């Protein structure tokens, strides 16, 4: 009988599942362990890690499946097979860490963005995992004893394997403790344990009681001057500073902005997070990155403060992930959903300004350089750097092709920002004008096997945290003042206070030391 090996009690299924997880689902995990171990000549770790992880999975699965029996047992095993395969695809292909924030990103992703991630490779993973899962669920000849006997057996094997892991750890704790303390990020690649734990945290955060929504800056006042202020914020997407020629990059990705002498570029600017779902709410918040958390979303943001003091808000959004509910209390909001190029953001720009003469804040939220379909982010006329990677299957492209395609997105952003400045400049006689541009987060393009973005901030490379930032002023004095300190370190933590300062809003929430322009 071909499945004779499977035709026994559930322990064989647990053993095979553990073996499959170690050998198929943790390729990236072991790749990183072996790399670090070889660099440190720690051969014991390299040789023993697979065996110890196997014991750990046997222990965990026995306790996880402790209360299951027959159909429930098959169902949980099937779910683990599919979950592990899906996680394995993203971890091994893009170097993704599937933490709680990644689930937040997934929940806020639109259908177009999901389709961009569908590749033949993902379909193969899904098909194979689904077929195996279906077989385990309905066809696999797994024999079961009584519920009591199965429970006792799983409890016994779980305890024994736990004791073995504990005993081994005590014997080698000196070597293992120092190794994993130095490389604590390794646990984030443990599949499917870390994704499942992260999903549990995500579900808990979703269903725990929500805090009461809190108003801020209730004491805010603003002086109504004769010459009105017009501030445009171009919120970029997935642009990393190292690919901006304004940052010293030797590829001419900023041919238009580089020629301008009326902008100030900030070369040392950091993001609040490594994904839009974190960075965008955080940068508009009064809370800095170190204080940011899910509960901080239940406070009013900078847009609310401006609006309550009488500033007119215009929000135009071409990001496929939307405005992350920052503008949900505003009335003049148009969502384009990333279905076209970013030029759509400038549609009716002048007409909107001419509609009413008052202090105005305009947000233009780009689709920018969002991957993996970089080739979809710019018109053909901006396909300057070739050869390009005209597919979402990044593993089929060379590093140079991926970088060229990404650089074309930056070239297009250069055009968008420059065009916005020109439109804004046409209003400088009538308004006190300012433009701010920076990206929400950066991007990895395959360096050290990491692609896209969203890694936990603690372990994320600089490419995902160091973002381009620039200011344009109609007032030459402001420009010269900022030039003096342009090389200082700034971050998205400064944005809330800089924005309040630009509109001269007085409130106890305003901190002059965090205002870039103060």
Describe this entry's structure for a reader.
The protein has 518 residues and is α/β, with parallel strands linked by helices. It has 2 domains: 10-207, no CATH class; 228-514, 3-Layer(aba) Sandwich (Alkaline Phosphatase, subunit A). It is 45% helix and 10% strand. It contains 16 helices and 13 strands. The chain has helices at residues 10-24, 27-39, 43-64, 71-94, 100-107, 111-117, 120-139, 147-182, 193-207, 276-284, 302-308, 349-355, 399-425, 462-465, 476-484, 495-502, and strands at 221-222, 228-236, 263-265, 269-270, 312-317, 333-335, 360-365, 431-439, 444-445, 451-452, 469-473, 490-491, 505-506. The strands form 4 sheets. A 7-stranded mixed sheet has the order 3-11-8-2-7-5-6, sandwiched between helices. The chain has a two-stranded antiparallel sheet with strand order 1-13. A two-stranded parallel ribbon has the order 4-12. Strand 9 and strand 10 (451-452) form a beta hairpin. Helix 1 packs across helix 3, helix 3 packs antiparallel against helix 8 (147-182) and helix 4 (71-94) packs antiparallel against helix 7. The protein is elongated and about 85 Å long. The N and C termini lie far apart (79 Å). The model is unreliable at 1-8 (pLDDT under 50).
SSE layout:
Layout: H1 10-24, H2 27-39, H3 43-64, H4 71-94, H5 100-107, H6 111-117, H7 120-139, H8 147-182, H9 193-207, E1 221-222, E2 228-236, E3 263-265, E4 269-270, H10 276-284, H11 302-308, E5 312-317, E6 333-335, H12 349-355, E7 360-365, H13 399-425, E8 431-439, E9 444-445, E10 451-452, H14 462-465, E11 469-473, H15 476-484, E12 490-491, H16 495-502, E13 505-506
Parallel strand pairs: 2-7, 2-8, 4-12, 5-6, 5-7
Antiparallel strand pairs: 1-13, 3-11, 8-11, 9-10
Helix pairs in contact: 1-3, 1-4, 2-3, 3-8, 4-7, 5-9
């Amino acid at each position: 009988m071909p499945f004779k090996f499977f035709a026994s009690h559930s322990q064989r299924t647990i053993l095979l599942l553990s073996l499959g997880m170690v050998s198929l689902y943790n390729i990236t995990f072991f790749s990183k362990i072996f790399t670090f171990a070889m660099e440190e000549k720690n051969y014991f770790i390299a040789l023993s890690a697979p065996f110890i992880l196997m014991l750990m999975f046997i222990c965990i699965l026995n306790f996880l499946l402790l209360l299951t029996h027959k159909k429930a047992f098959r169902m949980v095993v099937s779910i683990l097979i599919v979950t592990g395969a899906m996680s394995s695809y993203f971890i091994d292909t893009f170097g993704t860490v599937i933490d709680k924030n990644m689930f937040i990103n997934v929940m806020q992703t639109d259908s177009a963005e999901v389709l961009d991630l569908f590749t033949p490779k993902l379909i193969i993973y899904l098909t194979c995992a689904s077929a195996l899962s279906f077989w385990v669920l309905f066809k696999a000849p797994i024999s079961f004893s009584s519920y009591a006997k199965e429970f006792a057996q799983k409890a016994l094997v779980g305890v024994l394997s736990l004791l073995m892991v504990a005993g081994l750890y005590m014997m080698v704790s000196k070597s293992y403790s120092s190794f994993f303390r130095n490389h604590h990020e390794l646990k984030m690649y443990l599949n499917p344990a870390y994704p499942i734990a992260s999903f549990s945290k995500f579900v808990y955060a979703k269903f725990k009681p929500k805090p009461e929504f809190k108003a801020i800056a209730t004491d805010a006042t603003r002086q109504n001057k004769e010459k009105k202020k017009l501030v445009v914020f171009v919120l970029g997407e997935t642009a990393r500073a190292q690919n901006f020629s304004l940052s010293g990059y030797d590829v001419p990705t900023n041919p238009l902005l580089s020629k301008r002498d009326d902008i100030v570029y900030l070369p040392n600017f950091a993001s609040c997070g490594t994904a839009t779902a974190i960075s965008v709410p955080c940068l508009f918040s009064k809370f800095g990155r170190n204080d940011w958390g899910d509960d901080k979303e239940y406070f009013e943001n900078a847009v609310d403060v401006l609006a309550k003091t009488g500033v007119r808000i215009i929000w135009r959004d071409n990001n496929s992930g939307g405005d992350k509910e920052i503008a949900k209390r505003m009335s003049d909001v148009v969502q384009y959903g990333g279905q076209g190029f970013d030029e759509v953001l400038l549609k009716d720009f002048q007409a909107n300004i001419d509609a009413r003469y008052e202090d105005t804040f305009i947000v233009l939220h780009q689709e920018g350089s969002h991957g993996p379909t970089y080739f979809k982010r710019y018109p053909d006329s901006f396909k300057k750097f070739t050869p390009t990677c005209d597919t979402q299957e990044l593993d089929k492209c060379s590093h140079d092709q991926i970088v060229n395609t990404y650089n074309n997105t930056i070239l297009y952003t250069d055009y968008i920002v420059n065009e916005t400045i020109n439109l804004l400049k046409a209003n400088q006689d009538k308004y006190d004008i300012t433009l701010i541009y920076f990206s929400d987060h950066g991007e990895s393009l395959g360096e050290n096997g990491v692609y896209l973005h969203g890694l936990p901030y603690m372990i994320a490379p600089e490419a995902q945290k160091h973002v381009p930032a620039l200011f344009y002023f109609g007032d030459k004095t402001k420009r010269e003042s900022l030039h003096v300190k342009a090389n200082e370190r700034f971050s998205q933590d400064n944005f809330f206070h800089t924005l309040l300062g630009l509109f001269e809003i007085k409130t106890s929430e305003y901190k002059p030391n965090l205002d870039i322009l103060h």
